[in-house]
TrEMBL record:
Protein name from the UniProt record: Uncharacterized protein
Membrane-traversing stretches: 12-45, 57-77, 89-108, 172-192, 204-222, 252-271, 277-296, 317-335, 355-383, 395-415, 435-455
Superkingdom in the source lineage: Bacteria
Keywords: Membrane, Transmembrane, Transmembrane helix
Length: 456
């Protein structure tokens, strides 16, 4: 029975999440309690398939949460009600593969990767091209952009020395990836911050783009200067490729047009139904992906790729299920105790020095990422701690640093998914990946702190 169940977890997960999304419209307290009850076996079943890191985080959050819960004298029968606050994040992650699939079906990823296969004279030029490719792909396919670009670079840099190749790949791909996430409406850190601070996504958007593009251009200048003296010797079919600017521009225009329509749909749905940003994006992704695939005349490919990708991704969501459900219980129980007030005191004490608070947020992300704490877990705690400061400081400033503090960890988090994936693909120590990108992370976070300070 259990092997069958673990092979079909996507059905169990989806049924609960569909029930949750449906209940946002009917607001039934009974259904809400049923969802909470179902969250308990959902969490227990997911522990088996979760990685050791996420099991450890889950156990810590659950253990401390239980202490808070019983300290507050809450009735045991109400416990399921404290398990559902992060269900919307799981619903969001469940539909995300469909957006990735329509990009794959439309072959946008192949077209963008052709940029790196064109002839270039030095690694300096290749650095800019591969960073640009990762940046563009990440907007739509998110994590999938990492192996796509890294595998192409591994093939094209086969003649380069291993140390040089590994450093080049880890810098150009992870930096482009983390910068693209800053303004992507499909990035969960961005969605969490929008809902937590109460500032609209459209208010954040221009400032996040300014931060992202400024650091991106600075990194391109650095990368081009650092690697321009190293000649590029392509291997395999790389030398036969040529860049077609008109075709490339056409693909970029199509991607940005689709993203613009997507954002308009998200804002419209959110305003009409009075939904938060995360739920608005969740509801729009699926119909938008279906319609886009029809307009691209790639319906059959989309359904084939999408169904297979969705089943695999949803069936392997155990890490996030363990993290989000345990985090929901921890934060909900914490809110019922006076301990939250004690944690907030250092921030209140520094309220006359807003720059210090912004730097403290940035450093909290960086330090915790080094010991394996996922940035989503960090932001889950920070949004509860920082909430009273919204009356003292501009929430837009705090939100900017919540986003730009979390996303650089994609390039330096030793135990994070992206760094671990890069170390596996390039066969290098994850600490080398972290060390190669640490200066970049500090600059990226520093730019976010600067903008946040200017917006106070």
């Amino acid at each position: 029975m259990f092997p069958f169940l673990f092979r079909h977890l996507y059905i169990f997960y989806s049924a609960i999440l569909i029930l949750y999304v449906g209940n946002t419209f009917i607001s039934s307290s009974l259904v809400d309690y049923v969802i909470g009850v179902l969250a308990i076996p959902m969490l227990l079943l997911s522990f088996k398939g979760a990685s050791r890191l996420f099991r450890t985080l889950g156990c810590i959050f659950l253990s401390i949460g239980m202490l808070f819960y019983f300290y507050s004298g809450l009735p045991i029968l109400d416990l399921p009600l404290y398990m559902t606050s992060t269900m919307q994040l799981l619903a969001f992650l469940t539909v995300l593969p469909w957006m990735n699939s329509v990009v794959h079906a439309g072959r946008f990823d192949r077209r963008m990767n052709e940029v790196m296969k064109a002839n270039v004279s030095s690694l300096g030029k290749l650095y800019v091209r591969s960073s640009f490719t990762t940046y563009m792909l990440c907007t739509f396919v998110n994590l999938s952009s990492i192996p796509l670009t890294q595998e192409v670079l591994l093939e094209n840099l086969a003649k380069a020395k291993k140390k040089l190749r590994d450093t080049f790949i880890s810098q150009t791909t992870l930096r482009g990836f983390s910068l693209a996430l800053a303004w992507s409406p499909m990035e969960i850190i961005v969605a969490l911050t929008v809902d937590a601070t109460g500032v609209s996504y459209m208010t954040y958007l221009p400032w996040l783009i300014i931060c992202s593009v400024t650091v991106l251009l600075a990194d391109w200048l650095w990368g081009r200067k650092k690697y321009q003296s190293i000649s590029y010797e392509p291997s395999g079919t790389g030398a036969a490729r040529s860049l077609q600017p008109r075709r490339l521009v056409g693909q970029i225009v199509k991607l940005f047009l689709a993203l613009s329509v997507f954002l308009v749909a998200v804002v419209t749905i959110g305003n009409v139904f009075q939904l938060n940003f995360i739920l608005s994006v969740t509801l729009v992704i699926l119909p938008f992906s279906f319609i886009w695939s029809i307009l691209l005349k790639r319906w059959n490919s989309f359904i084939t790729i999408g169904w297979r990708t969705w089943k695999v991704r949803t069936n392997h969501m155990q890490n996030f299920v363990v993290l989000f459900l345990s985090l929901a219980f921890f934060s909900s129980a914490l809110n019922e105790t006076p301990f939250l007030h004690y944690i907030q005191q250092p921030f209140f004490a520094a309220s006359e020095y807003p720059l210090l608070i912004l730097i403290l947020i940035q450093l909290t992300y960086l330090v915790l990422s080094m010991i394996g704490v996922h940035p989503i877990a960090t932001i889950g705690i920070l949004v509860e701690v920082l909430q009273p400061l919204y009356d003292i400081m501009n929430p837009l400033s705090i939100g900017m640093v919540l986003i730009t503090g979390a996303l650089p960890t994609a390039a330096v988090g030793v135990y994070g998914v992206t760094v671990t994936m890069t170390s596996m693909i390039t066969k290098q120590n994850p600490y080398r990946v972290t060390w190669a990108n640490l200066p970049f992370a500090l600059v990226y976070g520093g730019m976010g702190v600067l903008l946040g300070y200017l917006l106070l």
